[in-house]
UniProtKB/TrEMBL annotation:
<dbReference type="GO" id="GO:0005524">
    <property type="term" value="F:ATP binding"/>
</dbReference>
<protein>
    <recommendedName>
        <fullName>Thymidylate kinase</fullName>
        <ecNumber>2.7.4.9</ecNumber>
    </recommendedName>
</protein>
<dbReference type="GO" id="GO:0004798">
    <property type="term" value="F:dTMP kinase activity"/>
</dbReference>
<keyword id="KW-0808">Transferase</keyword>
<dbReference type="GO" id="GO:0006235">
    <property type="term" value="P:dTTP biosynthetic process"/>
</dbReference>
<feature type="domain" description="Thymidylate kinase-like">
    <location>
        <begin position="5"/>
        <end position="182"/>
    </location>
</feature>
<dbReference type="GO" id="GO:0006233">
    <property type="term" value="P:dTDP biosynthetic process"/>
</dbReference>
<dbReference type="Pfam" id="PF02223">
    <property type="entry name" value="Thymidylate_kin"/>
</dbReference>
<keyword id="KW-0067">ATP-binding</keyword>
<keyword id="KW-0418">Kinase</keyword>
<dbReference type="InterPro" id="IPR039430">
    <property type="entry name" value="Thymidylate_kin-like_dom"/>
</dbReference>
<comment type="similarity">
    <text>Belongs to the thymidylate kinase family.</text>
</comment>
<dbReference type="GO" id="GO:0006227">
    <property type="term" value="P:dUDP biosynthetic process"/>
</dbReference>
<keyword id="KW-0545">Nucleotide biosynthesis</keyword>
<comment type="function">
    <text>Phosphorylation of dTMP to form dTDP in both de novo and salvage pathways of dTTP synthesis.</text>
</comment>
<keyword id="KW-0547">Nucleotide-binding</keyword>
<dbReference type="GO" id="GO:0005829">
    <property type="term" value="C:cytosol"/>
</dbReference>
């Protein structure tokens, strides 16, 4: 089982991952970007805003993803894997290119290994505004509210285009309500 928690910045992924870690001691927890040794270096390069070209930035994330699939996902396919972000973020955040092209590049990076369970935490514009004000923003978060809402729409579109087994959850529900929905989905 390859479960991924998706959502734009501040959607509540880390909060739910902490609960899952407590409830699923047997699972392997991982993340993109930065789930491997090489990925840690790529994450730093991708998030420090050094890449002036959006295409260069996307290839950093794609390199991270290819390494993560080979080193973490494929060797553990028989285990329960839970990942903070995935190919869905990869496709959605590369918003300067059409979805079809980015999907093709990502299917090369993943060698067609896709999540079996997608949990997408969905924020309203109002809630996103509130949550971003409560933290210091990295180079991607600094692109603003409308940018992130557009990414969230692309995430939903990507999940549907790839026909992935999914649940979209209102991220404004209480932490407990969300975690119960996640458990039901995983166990269902
Ligand atoms: N259901 C919820 N209701 C209200 N606030 C929440 C909820 N879930 C998380 N939060 C709060 O929202 C903020 C962002 O949560 P969290 O760090 O879990 O998000 P994230 O998706 O991991 O963010 P990022 O992608 O930026 O790392 C935190 O202050 C957290 O306490
Ligand atoms: C996988 C992936 C991520 N991003 C963006 C999304 C976030 O702004 C950061 C990752 O930060 P987090 O604290 O680990 O959530 O990177 C992206 O632009 N492209 C991608 O493929």
């Amino acid at each position: 089982m390859y479960v991924v928690i998706e959502g734009i910045d501040t959607a509540g992924k880390s909060t739910q991952l902490d609960i899952l870690k407590n409830n699923h001691k047997e699972a392997i927890f991982t993340k993109e970007p930065g789930g491997t040794q090489l990925g840690l270096k790529l994450r730093e390069m991708a998030l420090n805003g050094e890449a002036k070209s959006k295409v260069a930035e996307m290839f950093l994330f794609l390199a991270d993803r290819a390494e993560h699939i080979e080193e973490v996902i494929k060797p553990n396919e028989k285990n329960m894997i839970v990942s903070d972000r995935s190919v869905i973020s990869g496709i959605a955040y590369a918003s300067n290119l059409p979805l079809e092209i980015v999907i093709s590049l990502n299917l090369i990076a993943t060698s067609n290994t896709l999540p079996t369970h997608v949990i997408l935490l969905e924020l309203t514009k109002e809630e996103l505004t509130k949550r971003l004000q409560g933290k210091s923003n990295d180079s991607i978060e600094s692109r603003g509210i409308d940018y992130l809402i557009n990414i969230q729409n692309r995430m939903k579109e990507t999940v549907k285009m790839l026909k992935l087994n999914h649940i979209f959850i209102d991220a404004s529900l209480s932490i407990k309500e969300i975690s119960e929905k996640i458990e039901d989905f995983i166990n269902g």
